[in-house]
Inverse folding.
C-alpha cells in the first residue's frame, strides 16, 4: 500500500509511522510506503551525542533511526517503508540494499549512473551523494527510511555534516541534470521500482492521499 502525504510536518508523520508500525505488527495493514515532503527540518539519528535544539533557526529533531544528522526539506522525496521484516528473512542489511536498489533504478530512469559505495549506506552519482537512508526496526517492522534529493535546496546541507560527511558532497537530480526536476515527476518511477521489489501479487498497488488528524 502506498500513502502519498504531500507536504507534511515531520513530527506529524513521525507519529503516524509509530501508529502504522503497531498496526503492521498486528497484521492489520499490509506493508506500506509513505511518500512525503517536509518543511525544512534537521533530524538526528542515534549516532549523535549532544543534539542542538536548532541550527540556523531550523529545528533539530532527535529520532530512533540509525545514522547521523541530515536535512529534510521541500524538493526532497522522502519515503518511509513500514515493512514486516519477519516476512523477509529478518535481514535488515538485505532490506537496506533493496531500498538502495529501488533508488538506483529510479535514478537510472533519468540517465543518472547511480551506485552504492562499499561500506557506506546511501546512493551516489560519481563522488556525490544523492540519497540517504536511515531506518529503525521495532518488533521486526521497519520505519524511517530514505530521502532522495530531487530539487531540494542544497545550501542547508552545508550547515551540517550530513551522515558525518562534508555538506558539499550532497547533490540533487536537478543539479546533476542541469534542469528543474519535480518530485511529482520522480514519484511514478520510484513507485514502479518499489512495486517490483516490495509488492506481492496479492497486494494491489494503492496510491492514495491521506488526511491526518491529531
Amino acid at each position: 500500500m502506498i500513502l502519498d502525504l504531500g507536504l507534511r510536518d515531520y513530527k506529524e508523520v513521525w507519529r503516524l509511522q509509530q501508529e502504522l508500525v503497531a498496526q503492521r505488527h498486528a497484521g492489520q495493514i499490509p506493508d506500506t510506503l509513505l511518500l512525503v515532503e517536509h518543511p525544512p527540518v534537521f533530524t538526528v539519528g542515534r549516532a549523535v551525542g549532544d543534539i542542538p535544539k536548532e541550527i540556523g533557526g531550523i529545528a533539530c529533531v532527535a529520532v530512533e533511526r540509525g545514522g547521523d544528522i541530515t536535512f529534510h526539506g521541500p524538493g526532497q522525496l522522502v519515503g518511509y517503508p513500514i515493512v514486516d521484516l519477519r516476512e523477509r528473512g529478518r535481514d535488515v542489511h538485505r532490506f537496506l540494499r533493496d531500498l538502495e536498489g529501488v533508488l538506483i533504478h529510479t535514478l537510472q530512469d533519468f540517465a543518472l549512473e547511480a551506485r552504492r559505495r562499499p561500506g557506506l549506506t546511501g546512493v551516489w552519482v560519481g563522488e556525490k551523494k544523492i540519497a540517504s537512508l536511515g531506518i529503525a526496526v521495532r518488533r521486526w517492522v521497519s520505519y524511517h527510511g530514505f530521502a532522495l534529493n530531487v530539487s531540494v535546496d542544497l545550501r542547508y546541507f552545508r550547515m551540517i555534516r550530513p551522515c558525518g560527511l562534508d555538506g558539499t558532497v550532497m547533490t540533487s537530480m536537478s543539479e546533476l541534470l542541469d534542469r528543474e526536476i519535480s518530485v511529482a515527476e520522480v514519484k511514478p518511477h520510484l513507485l514502479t521500482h518499489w512495486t517490483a521489489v516490495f509488492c506481492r501479487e496479492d497486494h494491489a498497488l494503492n496510491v492514495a492521499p491521506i488526511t491526518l488528524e491529531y
Q: What stands out?
A: The chain has one domain: 2-209.
